[in-house]
Write a structure and sequence with these properties.
The complex is a heterodimer of chains A (357) and B (295). With 357 residues, chain A is mainly alpha-helical. In chain B, strand 3 and strand 4 form a beta hairpin. With 295 residues, chain B is mostly helical. Chain B has eleven helices and four strands. The radius of gyration of chain B is 19 Å and the shape is globular. Classes of the chains: A mainly alpha (357), B mainly alpha (295). At the A-B interface, helix 8, helix 14 and helix 16 of A face helix 4, helix 9 and helix 11 of B.
Chain lengths: 357, 295
């Protein structure tokens, strides 16, 4: 402990824990306003003249990944069931809109809604089976679901087989921008709302100790399945919009295993189990990947692998989680910290414990 | 007759799957880690053999004996890779959340696979061995000679591992750590070293199998994941920590896949084996060979 104090001396004077702590308190107290501000801020670029082109696409993709990372986090971070198969819902949503719009001439908005519902229904069926598994078994079973779904799409006629489907008549880039932004804001709002309700608390209880949660009388199967379906719905929406946004869909893009790792990395890097973490992680990591893709084509997945390793080893709690821990050192010092056992910590204690309310 | 042929093909390939799965099961049983980079060890083993042979003969073609001589090289190289992987990365996450251990090995898997892709391109490669033709024919069933060699090789590797674990001092240390790391440390076993040895052995056997796969099938940088997943199916099927279970599971998986490929289409093998896995997980989560702990 004492070496850690020495190392972070500079950090501590630049970003005092009590300031960070105060920032967290402000954020916690004004969650709704922050979501609203984010929505307004996100809505600005097209109004200010950014109508199409590279940056528009990159921003839309950032929202897309934020949706996926946040969805993953409902089950992976909040409930503690690490899914490696979330992209199955994405693929199912993507194929649903592609087939409805191209083969059945359904209007895109209707097809979009159906995509989310189909993904949710699929999640119900799969969830009943795989959510009985835990840990390693759950992770690999979901990966299996993803690969099996991919192979099914590759072999069916209606999905266009391995060559996929080309979709030409699609809405404009700006419409997709607002669509992705809208879904992201809606999802953030839903998760933020749920995190303060009984539902959210039960999910966290399942993560911390499922046995105890069951013993307290909660039907954990019901809660897990509901969370899984919620995640699938938003992932399905994202996929439903993506197939037309991308104007092309094939089994490789729709059930992209690398994306599945990418969104887990995003949630983890930002801080899983929080609302802001996955969004911050998605924006950050996608920016980095986009830069690498521009300047060193082909290396982005190497980078992704290394990013995952470094994140897990250096900040397993993610950015938000680590910051929160750092901020809560304040509490630790306020209540005496190591001062009781160690005299040298005394000055630190009084310096840091100054004026916070 | 077709069915017999498919089953024979399945058994021949299944032994290779089984040998890969045995290594996977070993890490799972001893270190309690699912090594998602296990398939990459198979890939690296295949490439090691390929490059050694290319270096010697110039075009990755050679006599059977020359090829067999590259197998120990692959085994040795992969032992070092596995040992280093455990020492540098995996040891840092042992005892933390399961999810973190999965992610570290998955991260390693992606990094290795993509580096291989950058270095050696996505082209499938294979080693050609001189006496591959003609195949043997036994009672109307065709048995390619190299597949038979690979089959025997995989069984030998599995048997060697089995004997190593039973007979040697290091093998006993590995089994002790599997049962109780703290007690093992108390009697003077270097737990970290033993775990790294386990990783090394597991990767070594995967690397050896990779050499055989380079001969009878082909190798390319992204082949790893399939082998990891097959190993998982096999281990779940046979029960964690059971080498005979993994052997039976591997032979069975090979047969099922060949039968599906033969009677339906090779496009469906993965979907079928994963559907089987999920059914099995739900119906009999402990695997067919019981409670699992390796003694």
């Amino acid at each position: 402990m004492s070496t850690e104090t020495d190392d972070s001396g500079l950090l501590r004077s630049v970003f005092p824990p009590d300031q960070i702590d105060r920032l967290f308190r402000i954020c916690d107290a004004h969650g709704w306003k922050l979501i609203l501000a984010g929505a307004v801020f996100g809505a600005l670029p097209p109004v200010l003249g950014l109508q199409s082109g590279y940056y528009m696409t990159v921003l839309s993709e950032m929202y897309l990944f934020a949706i996926l990372a946040l969805s993953w986090d409902i089950v992976g971070g909040q409930t503690g069931y690490p899914s490696f198969g979330n992209m199955a819902f994405f693929g199912i949503g993507a194929y649903t809109t592609a087939i409805l719009v191209k083969d059945f001439a359904v209007a895109f908005p209707a097809a979009f809604v159906v995509a989310g519902l189909v993904a949710t229904a699929f999640a119900l069926v799969i969830g009943i089976i795989v959510l009985r598994l835990r840990g390693h078994y759950f992770a690999i079973a979901t990966l299996g679901v993803l690969l099996a779904a991919q192979q099914v799409s590759r072999n069916l006629d209606i999905t266009g087989g391995a060559s996929g489907k080309i979709l030409l008549e699609t809405p404009s880039g700006t419409e997709f921008y607002y669509l992705f932004l809208g879904v992201l804001v809606a999802e953030a709002a839903v998760i933020y709302y749920l995190s303060g309700t009984r539902f959210g608390f039960v999910l966290n209880a399942i993560r911390d100790d499922e046995g105890k949660a069951t013993a307290m009388g909660f039907n954990t199967t019901y809660y897990k399945t509901a969370a899984w379906m919620l995640a699938a719905m938003f992932t399905g929406f994202a996929g439903g919009a993506y197939s037309l946004f991308n104007t092309f869909i094939d089994p490789q893009t729709a059930y992209n295993g690398a994306w599945n790792v990418e969104l887990i990395a995003m949630a983890l890097l930002g801080g899983s189990g929080t609302v802001a973490g996955p969004i911050i992680g998605a924006f950050g990591l996608h920016t980095v990947i986009e830069v690498v893709e521009t300047y060193a084509v082909g290396w982005q997945l190497v980078l992704l692998g290394l990013a995952v390793i470094v994140t897990v080893i250096v900040i397993p709690k993610g950015l938000v989680g680590s910051l929160r821990e750092y901020a809560s050192q304040m509490e630790y010092y306020k209540h005496g910290g190591m001062a009781a056992a160690d005299d040298s910590a005394d000055t630190d204690d009084s310096a840091a414990g100054g004026d916070s309310p | 007759m077709a069915a017999t042929q498919f089953v024979v093909n399945g058994l021949l390939v299944g032994a290779l799957f089984a040998a890969v799965a045995v290594g996977f099961a070993l890490i799972w049983g001893v270190v309690d880690i699912i090594n998602l980079a296990h398939g990459e060890m198979v890939m690296l083993g295949g490439y090691t053999s390929y490059w050694v042979l290319s270096l010697v003969t110039g075009n990755a073609e050679g006599s059977p004996l020359l090829f067999l001589a590259t197998v120990p090289v692959a085994i040795g190289v992969l032992f070092v890779v596995g040992y280093a992987l455990q020492r540098t990365l995996v040891s840092r996450v042992i005892g933390t959340d399961i999810f973190l251990t999965l992610l570290v090995t998955f991260g390693a898997s992606i990094a290795i696979q993509q580096l291989a892709l950058q270095a050696w391109s996505a082209n499938p490669r294979s080693i050609r061995v001189a006496f591959a033709d003609p195949s043997l024919t036994v009672a109307g069933v065709v048995v390619p000679k190299m597949k038979l060699v690979a089959f025997v090789g995989a069984l030998v590797l599995t048997a060697l591992l089995f004997v190593f674990l039973k007979q040697t001092r290091t093998g006993r240390a590995i089994r002790a750590v599997a049962q109780n790391p703290e007690a093992a440390a108390l009697v003077g076993i270097d737990v970290e070293h033993t775990r790294a040895m386990t990783f090394g052995l597991s990767s070594a056997i995967a690397g050896g199998v990779g050499s055989f796969i380079a001969v009878i099938l082909n190798i390319q940088p992204q082949m790893g994941l399939i082998y990891t997943l097959k190993s998982f199916v096999i281990v779940v099927f046979g029960g964690v920590g059971s080498i005979p279970g993994a052997l039976v599971g591997g032979l069975l998986l090979g047969s099922v896949e060949e039968l599906v490929a033969g009677f339906v289409s090779s496009q469906w093998t993965l979907a079928v084996s994963f559907s089987l896995l999920i059914v099995l997980l739900v119906v009999k989560p402990k695997g067919l060979f019981g409670e699992g702990v390796n003694e």
